[in-house]
Amino acid sequence: MASENYASNGVATAPLTSVNQALNFGRDYSRLKNYYETWSADYDNDVSEENYCGPSMLADLFDSLHRAPRERQSLRIMDACCGTGLVGKELMLRGFAPVDGCDLSPAMTHLAHKTQAYARLYGGVDLTEHNPLIADNQYDATFCCGAFIQGHLPIEAIHELMRITTQGGVILFSTRCSFYQDEHFDKFLDKLTASAQLCALPSFMNAAYLNDVQAHYLAFAVNK
Fold first, then answer.
1. For a designed S-S bond to 117, which of 41, 88, 200, 202 qualifies (C-beta 3.0 to 4.6 A apart)?
2. Burial of residue 213 (number of CB atoms within 10 Å: 0-12, 13-18, 19+)
3. Residues with Cβ < 8 Å from 183, sequence gap 6 or more?
4. What angle, rounded to 10 degrees, do the helices at 106-113 and 29-49 form?
5. How far is residue 139's CA from residue 62's CA, in Å, rounded to a whole number?
6. Of the CATH numbers 3.40.50.300, 2.40.30.60, 3.40.50.150, 3.40.120.10, which one belongs to the domain with range 16-222?
7. What's the rounded Cα separation, in Å, for the pair 57 and 208?
8. Cβ neighbours of residue 68 closer than 8 Å, sequence gap 6 or more
9. pLDDT (tens digit, 9 = 90+) per residue, 117-156?
10. C-alpha–C-alpha distance, residues 99 and 97, integer Å
11. Buried residues in 105-144 as b, exposed as e (16+ CB within 10 A)
12. What beta strand segments (E) does 35-155 contain?
């Protein structure tokens, strides 16, 4: 897998912040949804204070794959786990047309709507399940930023991202380096590439994410 390494700070003991509290729900999605419903109003400010750069990094990665400006307005894009719309805003700044988005928390999608970066938004979407609201083979690119972390999406949710992406389309997602290692993400992705379901594209590895936290930003072409 091609990669680009970004310099970042070393790992430090994590303080008890809103971001870190969100890691402690053990994939109890009812409790996690309630947490984000309450947190939504303060989310942007809280992650900004921790220098969260995941959305801009993932948008930069996609930007490097689509250099022709004329293509950008015609691409169909889904921002899965869109939150308050940080990825959508980054894509809009880079000249992409309004995208679709979905999130577990309706309160978060309500805030995403205010960014004007989204054409359609779906609240209450659990990506660990097949969602009939989102059709198969619909998107040229599917993003998932900040959700492959402790207590949130399991690695198997990659299959739902693949389902809604077109043949030859792209999935792009971030994962904290620690989560990638603990969940054996490399072995899971190796199986998908060995079976030709995915084809690895250039990625950003060991890159900045939050204060003292690194992430991998991965891109794959989807084969069906």
1. 88
2. buried
3. 154, 155
4. 40
5. 14
6. 3.40.50.150
7. 8
8. none
9. 999 999 999 999 999 999 999 999 999 999 999 999 999 9
10. 6
11. bbbbbebbbebebbeebbbebbbeeebeebeeeebbbbbb
12. 77-80, 99-103, 118-123, 139-148
Give the global pTM. Answer: 0.91
CA 45 to chain CA centroid, Å, is 19
- Tokens standing for 198? 């995915």
- Residue 216 near residue 175 (C-beta atoms within 8 A): yes
Q: Where are the domains of the chain?
A: 16-222
Burial 193-206 (b: 16+ CB within 10 A, else e): eeeebbebbebbbb
